[in-house]
């Protein structure tokens, strides 16, 4: 019988679905193991062969753990809110829910076809109301919490209110806004309800504030820092500007230190930890306070080098700094305003990255040096970022490069406090040695001591203190989009109110248009039925808004990362409609044991999820404060893009061999239009790119048109994608799974080459043939006892495959299987025991063929939970040795003897041998020398 993979794969996929083979139980005596994939955004293009790489690896691991007897949770779902569906809706009027559902269908078909062992009964979709009900619920929990620095955790807002009621806020240590006035318990009681709400907002872990945001006019929305690449939007490459808007923010900064510390407790890739560490950006230094001459104002700066304070020759404020308007003198007003307007157009990334253009303006105002009392000019400059530190710096041109460049540019004094001191990089690297010489109290001190002393002196003056600063900013949580989670929030007197849990979810309203409204409001501003009735407790028509019992609802929606920040916990109990998950479920599953996904989420999803998890932990909702013990980033699969070269300024296309000295522009051609010899299907290309339908093609002498090739990330936009559907059809999912693993180490990036798949496909055919006696039913094959060689092959394979899986070295397992099948075929092995064990080893990698052969071996149950074969060392050991038997040093014959024999037993066996007696011819040997495992020499 032939290896009919199409039929076999369809058969087992159906079997698994019907029998719910991979359903994980929340009640189990078995030990749990949770294997998670980053769930996909269901895009219109479907999966290409690069997407399943991580899913195949995690599936192998999940299946392996089932064979090991674990109760394995291996869920899958969809991160189904997002911009592409919304943009498609804007263009076509098609509701995003419809496109999303259609895309999910394609994804599901493609995932099923690859034979993944997902527990589909736990599927989640972030865009479904049953799911986002809990995203809204978490938002409410965060709103109702504050961060108590004394207990170092999030607490219920009621505990804060209790303190404010009894003693005011003087002794409250919280991570909160920094503009909160000190008030007493009496003040608090006397505040109006709105005033109280305003104050509490400054403490809440999610709050409304006027924030500087990255506004993308083309997309009509705010973007997070990680959604901007090189100053433009990651999606679409549109310009991004800074703008002040009232936005929801999440106080992730409260968790900065814990997010850093937690990295030491999890097994995640070092590069990923490094990028989170840099993103959080902890700096130790000091805050120093400078009085502003002629004003009742002070400027607080953050500096990592308080020891250089005697080198300050000017101060620089960020153009957005709130003091700028107050201190700028009439004389400089026009210049300052013009400058502020010009910089508003530059995104923060540009400002940080740009080292060449120096720009700034003088405010006309002066600050007073804390120690010398000298006047220091106050400038504004956009190299100082509004959102970092205090948005103001003390500028030390002899210590800081940007300050130096600024001083040079504007001809400001550059006092040298390092006169006669070695300030080379090497000298500075040795922090204990560099001597600072610039004042009475710092003279002669090594660097570290000088920093401490400067802080001490500032404190003595009451003008500074030691400070740790983090680069991590609070995360803006509002998006001006339609296709996202609505906030469970309505407004009374401008103050946000939460809707009670029992009325959730608040479902997305219908709108006519998915664009912002004409007055610039977010798309939900187009909805007619978008008001909250506090009596009927439901969403009602806007026309009913009376600000007495019916109030307007929030118009923003939540960002892309909201839905993915707790999905891993929701999978534990996804169909629970009363709670986000039951206590029993979370206590059993606890956390993710293995998480596999892309490294591009390092400072987005993976940081936000850790933040929410820590919050949930503080609230006693989850038992672990890190959600994933181990994480692996799968490498990227690259494609071989094809390029057609177009002559500059024209429509003439030039074959690769002829472009040498010409000015050409490379244009991507779809790889399906190119054959194995890099020749382009010209007609196909003309049809594919309409704008080149009438282009001229200059071919090589032999009449062919050659394209250039280059390895790039596999992506639809580069027209180099390979679709897994066609491969499954031609070679089967098992061949594809094996091949994706065979390509190379999981974590490395590697090029795709479809031609190579014949290798793993050929292997599966050989494997199939090895089971022939069982496939054709003639099971009586006379091999009841496994041969020694077969056992040796089997056990060395068990050992290697087990080690490989545990080290996530899946590529090396594939070659181990190939060797094993070659050896067993050569041995003509047809022993059931050996072949059963072998097919269990193969089953995590190639599950369909494994199920089929398992059933051919006579099993009626799925192979999925068959125990993983046990490796036994003894089969690898040689059990006997062919001893050379020598007489007076000359080898005469050999004897096969067990390696278990003692020296005496060996001697006795040799002496008893007929051939020995022949050699001795009745003589008594003088000596018999036995070296066990090596030789026997008879002397005499
Ligand atoms: C004086 C000084 C002297 C500084 C010197 C450096 C060297 P990190 O390590 O990144 O935390 N700074 C502070 N706030 C800033 C802002 N909002 N925008 C731009 N720069 C800012 O660096 C902290 C240092 O960066 C601070 O120490 C400050 O310059 C500058 F020889 O103060 B320093």
UniProtKB/TrEMBL annotation:
User: Can you give the residue ranges of the Methionyl/Valyl/Leucyl/Isoleucyl-tRNA synthetase anticodon-binding domain?
Assistant: 788-904
| Catalytic reaction annotation | tRNA(Leu) + L-leucine + ATP = L-leucyl-tRNA(Leu) + AMP + diphosphate
Alphabetical list of PROSITE patterns matching this protein: AA_TRNA_LIGASE_I
Q: Which residues form the Leucyl-tRNA synthetase editing domain?
A: 278-455
Single GO MF descriptor: leucine-tRNA ligase activity
Methionyl/Leucyl tRNA synthetase domain location: 38-142
Secretion signal span: none
Give any Pfam family that matches. Answer: Anticodon_1
For the ligand (ATP), the binding residues are 716
UniProt keywords (A-Z) are: Aminoacyl-tRNA synthetase, ATP-binding, Cytoplasm, Ligase, Nucleotide-binding, Protein biosynthesis
The residue numbers the entry assigns to motif 'KMSKS' region are: 713-717
Places the protein is found: Cytoplasm
The EC designation for this entry is: 6.1.1.4
Q: Which domain of life is it from?
A: Bacteria
Q: Which family does it belong to?
A: Belongs to the class-I aminoacyl-tRNA synthetase family.
**Which PANTHER family does this UniProt record tie to the protein?**
LEUCINE--TRNA LIGASE, MITOCHONDRIAL (PTHR43740:SF2), LEUCYL-TRNA SYNTHETASE (PTHR43740)
Q: What is the protein name for this chain?
A: Leucine--tRNA ligase
Q: Which organism is it from?
A: Maribacter confluentis
């Amino acid at each position: 019988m032939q290896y009919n993979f199409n039929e076999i794969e369809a058969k087992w996929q159906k079997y698994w679905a019907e029998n719910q083979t991979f359903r994980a139980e929340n009640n189990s005596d078995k030990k749990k193991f949770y294997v998670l994939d980053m769930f996909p955004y269901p895009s219109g293009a479907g999966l290409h062969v690069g997407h399943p790489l991580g899913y195949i690896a995690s599936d192998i691991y999940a299946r392996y753990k089932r064979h090991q007897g674990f109760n394995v949770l291996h869920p899958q779902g969809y991160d189904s809110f997002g911009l592409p569906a919304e943009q498609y809706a804007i263009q076509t009027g098609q509701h995003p829910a419809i496109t999303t559902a259609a895309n999910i269908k394609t994804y599901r078909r493609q995932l099923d076809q690859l034979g993944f062992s997902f527990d589909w009964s736990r599927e989640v979709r972030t865009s479904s109301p049953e799911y986002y009900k809990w995203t809204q619920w978490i938002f409410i929990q965060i709103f109702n919490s504050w961060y108590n620095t004394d207990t170092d955790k999030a607490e219920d807002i009621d505990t804060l209110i209790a303190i404010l009621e009894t003693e005011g806020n003087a002794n409250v240590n919280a991570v909160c806004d920094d503009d909160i006035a000190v008030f007493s318990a009496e003040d608090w009681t006397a505040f109006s309800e709105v005033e109280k709400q305003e104050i509490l907002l400054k403490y809440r872990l999610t709050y409304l504030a006027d924030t500087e945001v990255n506004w993308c006019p083309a997309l009509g929305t705010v973007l997070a820092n990680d959604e901007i690449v090189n100053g433009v939007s990651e999606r679409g490459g549109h310009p991004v500007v800074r703008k002040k808007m009232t936005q929801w923010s999440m106080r992730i900064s409260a968790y900065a230190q814990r997010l850093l510390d937690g990295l030491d407790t999890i097994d995640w890739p070092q590069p990923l930890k490094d990028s989170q560490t840099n993103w959080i950006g902890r700096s130790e230094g000091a805050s120093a306070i400078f009085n502003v001459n002629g004003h009742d104002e002070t400027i607080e700066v953050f500096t990592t080098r308080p020891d250089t304070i005697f080198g300050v020759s000017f101060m620089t404020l960020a153009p957005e700094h709130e003091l700028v308007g107050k201190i700028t003198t009439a004389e400089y007003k026009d210049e300052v305003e013009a400058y502020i307007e010009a910089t508003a157009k530059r995104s923060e990334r540009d400002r940080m990255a740009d080292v060449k253009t120096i720009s700034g303006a003088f405010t006309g105002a002066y600050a007073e040096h804390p120690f010398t009392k000298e006047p220091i000019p106050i400038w504004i400059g956009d190299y100082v970022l509004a959102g970092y530190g205090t948005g103001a710096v003390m500028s030390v041109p002899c210590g800081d490069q940007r300050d130096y460049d600024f001083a040079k540019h504007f001809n400001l004094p550059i006092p040298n406090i390092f006169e006669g001191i070695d300030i080379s990089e090497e000298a500075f690297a040795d922090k204990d040695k560099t001597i600072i010489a610039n004042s009475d109290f710092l003279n002669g001190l090594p660097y570290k001591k000088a920093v401490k002393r400067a802080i001490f002196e500032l404190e003595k003056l009451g003008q500074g203190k030691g400070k740790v600063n983090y680069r991590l900013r609070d995360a803006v949580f509002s998006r001006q989009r339609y296709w996202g989670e609505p906030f469970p929030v309505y407004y009374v007197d401008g103050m946000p109110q939460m809707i009670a849990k029992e009325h959730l979810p608040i479902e997305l309203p219908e709108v006519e248009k998915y664009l912002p409204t004409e007055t610039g409001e977010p798309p939900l501003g187009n909805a007619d039925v978008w008001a909250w009735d506090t009596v009927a407790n439901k969403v009602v028509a806007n026309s009913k808004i009376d600000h007495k019992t019916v109030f307007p609802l929030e118009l923003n929606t939540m960002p892309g990362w909201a839905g993915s920040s707790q999905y891993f916990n929701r999978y534990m109990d996804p169909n629970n409609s009363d709670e986000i998950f039951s206590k029993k479920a979370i206590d059993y599953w606890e956390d993710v044991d293995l998480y596999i996904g892309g490294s591009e989420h390092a400072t987005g999803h993976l940081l936000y999820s850790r933040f929410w998890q820590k919050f949930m932990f503080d609230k006693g909702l989850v038992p672990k404060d890190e959600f994933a013990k181990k994480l692996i980033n799968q490498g990227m699969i690259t494609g071989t893009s094809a390029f057609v070269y177009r002559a500059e300024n024209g429509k003439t296309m030039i074959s690769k061999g002829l472009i040498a000295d010409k000015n050409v522009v490379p244009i991507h051609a779809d790889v399906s239009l190119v054959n194995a010899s890099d020749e382009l299907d010209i007609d196909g290309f003309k049809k594919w790119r309409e704008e080149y339908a009438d282009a001229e093609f200059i071919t090589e002498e032999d009449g062919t048109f050659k394209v250039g090739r280059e390895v790039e990330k596999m992506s639809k936009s580069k027209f180099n994608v390979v679709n897994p559907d066609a491969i499954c059809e031609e070679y089967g999912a098992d061949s594809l799974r094996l091949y994706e693993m065979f390509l190379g180490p999981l974590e490395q990036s590697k090029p795709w080459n479809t031609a190579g798949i014949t290798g793993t496909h050929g292997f599966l055919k050989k494997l199939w043939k090895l089971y022939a006696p069982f496939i054709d039913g003639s099971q009586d094959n006379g091999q009841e006892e496994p041969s020694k060689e077969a056992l040796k092959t089997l056990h060395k394979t068990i050992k290697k495959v087990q080690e490989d899986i545990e080290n996530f070295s899946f590529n090396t397992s594939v070659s181990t299987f190939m060797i094993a099948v070659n050896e067993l075929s050569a041995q003509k092995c047809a022993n059931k025991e050996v072949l059963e064990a072998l097919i269990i080893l193969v089953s995590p990698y190639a599950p369909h063929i494994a199920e089929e052969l398992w059933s051919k071996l006579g099993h009626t149950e799925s192979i999925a939970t068959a125990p993983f074969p046990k490796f036994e060392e003894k089969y690898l050991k040689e059990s006997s040795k062919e001893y050379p038997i020598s007489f007076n040093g000359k080898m005469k014959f050999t004897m096969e003897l067990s390696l278990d024999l003692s020296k005496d037993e060996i001697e006795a066996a040799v002496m008893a041998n007929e051939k020995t007696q022949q050699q001795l011819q009745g003589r008594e040997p003088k000596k018999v020398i036995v070296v066990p495992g090596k030789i026997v020499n008879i002397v005499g």
